[in-house]
């Protein structure tokens, strides 16, 4: 298996699987795809799960170039 880069992570999200980065400091953090029908919105978005709950996530340059993505 090749490196688990952002492309791998996006493909996993599109299959409705949760992903995370091994390098993230927060325990239990993960990303998941949120679908429009679940929120009354027009477009899907990626949310990050934290101790505070789910919030919209924006990819940083560090996340974009990372190769430590894993299943959450």
* Largest sheet geometry: 3 strands, antiparallel
Q: Identify low-pLDDT runs.
A: none
The shape is globular
Distance between the termini: 18 Å
User: Mean pLDDT score, rounded?
Assistant: 92
Order of adjacent strands in the largest pleated sheet: 2-3-4
Radius of gyration: 12 Å
Approximately how much beta-strand content do the residues carry? Answer: 25-35%
Helix content bin: 25-40%
Look at the helices and sheets and give the structural class: alpha+beta
Order of helical and strand elements: HEEHEEHE
Number of strands: 5
What's the number of helices? 3
Question: How are the secondary structure elements laid out?
Answer:
Layout: H1 6-14, E1 19-21, E2 30-34, H2 36-39, E3 45-50, E4 53-56, H3 61-65, E5 69-71
Antiparallel strand pairs: 1-5, 2-3, 3-4
Give a short summary of the structure.
It contains three helices and five strands; from the N terminus they run H-E-E-H-E-E-H-E. With 72 residues, the protein is of the alpha+beta class.
Task: Characterise this structure.
By secondary structure, this protein is α+β, with helices and mostly antiparallel strands. The protein is built from three helices and five strands; from the N terminus they run H-E-E-H-E-E-H-E. A hairpin with a 2-residue loop joins strand 3 (45-50) and strand 4. The longest helix is centred in the N-terminal third of the chain and has 9 residues, at 6-14. It starts with 5 loop residues before the first helix and ends with a strand. 11% of the residues are buried. The model has no long low-confidence stretch (mean pLDDT 92).
């Amino acid at each position: 298996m090749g490196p688990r880069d952002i492309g791998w992570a996006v493909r996993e999200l599109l299959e409705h699987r949760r992903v995370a980065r091994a390098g993230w400091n927060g325990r239990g953090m993960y990303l998941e795809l949120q679908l429009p029908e679940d929120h009354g919105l027009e477009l899907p978005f990626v949310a990050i799960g934290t101790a505070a709950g789910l919030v919209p996530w924006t990819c940083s340059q560090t996340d974009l170039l990372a190769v430590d993505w894993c299943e959450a």
